[in-house]
Amino acid sequence: MKQKPQVFFTDTTLRDGLQSPGLHVSAANRIRLAKLLDEIGFYLLEAGIPAMGTEEKDTVWAIKESCRHTKIAVWNRMRPEDILHSFDCQPAVIHISAPVSDLMLRGVVRRDRAWLEATLEKCVGLAREKGYMVTVGFQDASRGDIPYMIHLSRLLSRLEVSGIRLADTAGLLTPLAARTLVRRMTENTGMTYGFHGHNDFGMAVANTAEAVRAGAVYADTTLFGIGERAGNCDAYMLSQALEGLYALTPAKERLHSAAQTAKALLWGKESGSGWPAIKERKTEGADMR
Amino acid sequence: MIRITDTTLCTELFANTSAPLFRSFYVALLELGVARVQVDARGLEKLGGALVKERTVLLVDTPPASSGWPAGFAGFLSGSCPSYEEALKLHSSPTRILAGDSLFAADYPAIMARLLRRHPETELSVENAAYSATALAAEWIQAGGRNITACLYGTGGQTPLETVLILLHTQGYDLKNYRLSLLKPLAALWEECAGQALPAHMPILGESIFHVSSGVHADGIRKDPTLYEPFDPALVGARRHILLGRQSGRGAITLKLEEYRLNPEHFAIDTLLRTVRETSYCLGRNLREEEFAALLGRREMRAI
Asked: Number of residue pairs across A and B with CB atoms under 8 Å?
């Protein structure tokens, strides 16, 4: 029997997810959530942003100590000083977010591609010198120039970066566009890719599913799809969309069984501020004419 | 021209809606610009004099004899519509084709092209089982289709009206027949009719989707809103709002001060940022407006 391809969910509940407006989770509950994500079996979780300060670093440390299997990653802007902050946490993975689209380069950092490459090389080099596993996020990849991103991927491959996460930062992709992006990147480089979707048009799950079909091995998700604006890709919904076709890490059933505990840790006694409870998919055609 | 048949009023959630509210929602859909509104026999009774036959599709359980259809309606539906697999074999074009996650799992661009060659005027109705309904409806339009069905908030598990409209708008489609600013009032009516609140984070119309808390995003939005916002909040009558808390950065503080018509250059941003973060940690939540005002030593502030 043919083996199903592997897909690994990487969790960003504790980083991007906690940017959900009005949501505030105590450090103690963040640590409990991390332990739960570890028990569920996520391949990797983003524990936080060390550059935010001492409290954040302490929380990342505590998360690291409470998790047994899941790789602990920390998120960094593309700044050498951020990477130095991350060293204080000694994570398994240092993730560096690079604004790769010309729109982001001009609009956010107000620099050019040469600066991007030099700074990225410096940041990656800092982390690799210390022996860290490094992943890079292509921020705003959905509006990026694919040939340039292919060039960057090759550069990062030479710098021994372990994987690249293609981010649909403004939630603009459609599934077909996500397919084209991931397929062209995988076909033209030897790099391993992940996909990070946003739900602005309600398509985070569909876009991530298409990215996986096109060759992305890692799927970025949050519990209940929480996150800024309309949120991120919901881990459980994605597992529903992909089950049967892929070998999923974690399995759908493990996500389901942990839902109530996760909800209590995120929202306490509150209702969940309208984020969906885990629900089963309807049978196709059940309510249609 | 993109023609949408809205089927919200035929969903179970609206079965017990009072006649006045039902009528208001129907009229609001027509004013928004949907081409047709689908109602069933019970809904037809509730509409009374508000009925606009030429923009109403009537759903009936049993088709009358061929000469027995009431005159003047935009269309009729009875029984089940064909699935996309069945429609590929049909010679005469059905009114509506049904699709769901099995289409999304298949080679949908090729299948849509084949369907549209046979049935160019047929409308596609997508069930949102694989969370792909918006995408498939938009792909149908991109492939040359002109007719789709939708429901506000995807009621009944179908294509959400608001996501497909704004997505097509951002893709540059001509939606001059639609008054997109009426989506918000329609959502408020939906809440009244359904007796439940719409989620604050729902795509397009959620109350909190333009609330910004992270420092990176606030900084980006300050420089160019299109960097982190897929469409202008004003398009749907919403406003951006900066939340201050433990994830805030210098950009968020600056934006907040500007929101209050204060000159950021008159403030020690770094000190203010540190205090905001520490206060947020202590409170276990974001700062309220009055708490930020207190940090500035002001009793009252009003955002522009």
From this structure: 184
What does chain B come to in residues?
Answer: 304
**Chain B residues within 8 A of A224 when measuring between CB atoms:** none
CB atoms within 10 A of CB B247: 25
Helices (H) and strands (E) in chain A, counts: 11, 9
The string of pLDDT tens digits covering residues A262-271 is: 999 998 866 5
Q: State the pTM of this model.
A: 0.91
Q: What CA–CA distance (Å, rounded) separates B58 from A197? A: 39
**Chain A, window 49-88: residues with a beta carbon less than 8 angstroms from a chain B beta carbon:** 52-53, 55, 77
Angle at alpha carbon of residue B83, lines to B82 and B84, rounded to 5°: 115
What does the DSSP assignment read for B133-200? HHHHHHHHHHTT--EEEEBGGGTTTB-BHHHHHHHHHHTT---TT--GGGHHHHHHHHHHHHTSPPPT
Instruction: Name the DSSP letter for residue B95.
Output: S
What residues of chain A, 132 to 191, have a C-beta less than 8 Å from chain B? 140, 169-172, 174-176
- What is the complex's ipTM, to 2 decimals? 0.89
